[in-house]
Each structure stands twice: as structure tokens, then as C-alpha cells.
Amino acid sequence: MCHKLSKIFVSTLFVLIIAVSFAIAGTPGTVISVDEQGMATVQTDDGQMLRVKVAGAQIGDKVDCTEKAGKASCKKAS
Q1: Is the pTM above the cut of 0.85?
Q2: Number of domains into which the chain is organized
Q3: Which segment of the chain is annotated as a signal peptide (predicted)?
């Protein structure tokens, strides 16, 4: 019984570690438009469209985007 619970716990922990590492790793994208207020529309490589504030962003800039607590943010890729 204890061995079975240990296997379940370790498997769950492994899945959570993998999921967190994907969430922390940035999703690359490209700035496709910037409005007068500095809000950028970013299309991520996985097809999502995001409206975020990116300091000094210009059309065509490559960015890395992350999501934390339901809010997306992007920064220029280095």
C-alpha cells in the first residue's frame, strides 16, 4: 500500500515539475502591431494573440512571453 502511494506521489510530483518548467520557460513571439499607448499585439509561435505592454517595442521585434497568475507579459528577446 505504501509503495503504491509513493509511486503515485512521485509521478504527480514529476508531472508538476514538468508543467512548471514549461510555464516558466518563455513562449517566443513576434510583435505585429503597436498602438499609440504602447500596447503591442504579439503573435506567439504557438498561434496565440496577446495584447501586452512591451517597453520600446516595434513591429517585427522578437519577444518572450510568460503567463503568471492569469496575466500575460512579454519582454524583448535578447
Answers
A1: no
A2: 1
A3: 1-25
